[in-house]
Amino acid sequence: MDQTTELIAQTACYLVNTYARFPIVLVKGSGARVWDAEGKSYLDCAAGIAVDILGHCHPKMVEAIRAQAELLLHVSNLYFIEPQIRLARALSEHSFGGQAFFCNSGAEANEAAIKLARRYAKARWSSDRYEIVCMRDSFHGRTMATVTATGQEKYSQGFEPLLSGFKHIPFNDLPAAERAIDSRTCAVLVEPIQGEGGVRVPDDAYLPGLRRLCSEREVLLILDEVQTGMGRTGRLFAYEHSRIEPDIMTLAKGLGGGLPIGAMLAKGAVAGAFVPGSHASTFGGNPFITAVAHAVLAEIIDAQLPERAAKTGAYFLGRLRELAARYSFVKDARGKGLMLAMELSVPAKPIVARCLERGLLILIAGDQVLRFVPPLIIGEAEVDEAIQILDLVLAEKSS
Fold first, then answer.
1. Cis preceding-peptide flag for 202 (omega within 30 of 0)
2. Annotation says 102 is catalytic
3. Local structure of residue 341 (DSSP, 8 states)
4. 203 to each of 45, 115, 200, how far by Cα in Å?
C-alpha cells in the first residue's frame, strides 16, 4: 500500500466524513505550487480557498512564525497583547478607522458582527430592532447564526429549526432591500462580491445604494470581506472600489496567510456596544497569530499586492474570456482582481477533477461555476500555464 492510499484509509477510520476530498495528500508548498505525497507538483489556483494570499512558505511569513514562536505563543485576553494591538492599529489605519475584535475564523467574525449589530440596535434604538437582512446565494459560515444568515438552503438542511431574525432578499437588487428594511431591521449583511454564490459581482451602484439606504433608515451596514478582503479584488478591501465605508466589516482567510484568524472591525460608536463580558474568544488574537497576521498585512502593503492582483487578475480574466469565446458550454467569465469565475452549462466538478489530474488546483462555486482564487503573488507565466491546462480539459469535454 502506497503512502497516499494508506493515509486515505486512515482518514476514513479516524475523521468525521464532512468533506468530499480529492484523492491526493498535499505535503509541501512553495510560492504558487504544492506537491503531493508521491512528489507530483500542482499549480495552486485554489490557495486553500482564498487563504494562502502570499503563496506557500513565503519568507516573510516563515520569519515571523519563527520569531514569535521563540517569544510567546499564547496568553489570554485578560492581559494586554502587544502584537494584537499592532495588528488592530494597522487594520484600523488602512481601513475606515474601526476598532477590532479578533477571533479564529470567518464564521466567528460574522457571528461577532451579528451579535454586535443586535446589541447596538437594542441599546441605541429599541428592543425589537433585531432583524438582519441578508442576501440569497450568500455564504457567511457554518455556526447556527451564520448558516441561518447564509442564503443557500443546502448549507442549512438538517439543522432546522434555524434561528429567527433573518430575512433573505435577492443580491444586487436595491428595490428589494428598500422593501425589506422595516422598523425591526438592525442591519444589512452583504458580501461585496459573492464568493460561494458563484463569484457574483454587483452593479457599480449597488453598494453605494445600500450605504445610502442604510444611512437614511438608521440601519447598520455589515460587509462580509472574509473572502474579498486583504487585496484579493485589487484593493486592500473590496468596499474601496465603491468609495463607501461600512459600519462593521469582517475579515479572515487571507488575513492569516494560512494560519487561522478572524477579525471584526466596527466604527467606534458601534464598537462601544461591546463591553467587558459581552463577547469573547479564548484563542482570538493571541500573540502568535496576531504577530504573523501583522507580518502578512505588512507584506501585502509593502509589496503592493492589491495592485498586482488587479493587474494579474485583469490578464487572467482576459485569458478566461478567450476560452469562453471558444467553448459553447462556457456561459461567462467574470470577477475582479484575483477572485475569478467561469460559469458553465455543464457540471463543474468533473472539470475540476480533470484539472487536478493534469496538475492544476481550482475550485467550484456552485454546481456549474469554476472558481479561481490563486495567491496574489502569481505571475502571468503561471496564469498562462493554468490556462493551457484548462484549455486541454475543456477541449476534452467538447470532443
1. no
2. no
3. E
4. 26, 29, 10
Give the count of beta carbons closer than 10 Å to the beta carbon of residue 228: 27
What is the number of H-type helices and E-type strands within the chain?
13, 15
d(CA 91, CA 97): 8
Cα separation, 236 vs 306, whole angstroms: 6
Residue among 224, 237, 274, 372 flagged as catalytic:
224
- What residues pair up with 339 in beta bridges, in sequence order? 336
The owner of cell 450568500 is 138
For residue 255, what is its C-alpha cell?
488575513
pLDDT band at 398 (very low <50, low <70, confident <90, very high): confident
Cell match 466596527: residue? 266
The predicted structure's pLDDT at residue 1: 53
Q: Exactly one of 96, 101, 139, 316 is catalytic; name it.
A: 139
CB neighbours (10 Å) of residue 47?
29
Q: Is 60 a catalytic residue?
A: no
> Is the pLDDT score of 59 beyond 60?
yes
Fold type of domain 3-57+304-398: Aspartate Aminotransferase, domain 1 (3.90.1150)
Any idea which residue has 495592485 for its cell? 307
The pLDDT assigned to 4 comes to 87
User: How many CB atoms lie under 10 A from the CB of residue 387?
Assistant: 18
Considering 253, 274, 336, 372, which one is annotated as catalytic? 253
pLDDT digits (tens, 9 = 90+) for 292-323: 999 999 999 999 999 999 999 999 999 999 99
- Domain residue limits, the chain: 3-57+304-398, 72-302
Structurally, at CATH architecture level, domain 72-302 sits in: 3-Layer(aba) Sandwich (3.40)
**Per-residue CA distances from 8 to 14, 43, 70, 355 (Å):** 10, 22, 34, 20
Mean pLDDT of 98-103: 97
For the chain, how long is the longest CA-to-CA vector?
A: 65
Active-site residue, 173 included: no
Higher-pLDDT residue of 1 and 346 is 346
State the CB neighbour count (10 A cutoff) for residue 211.
Answer: 20
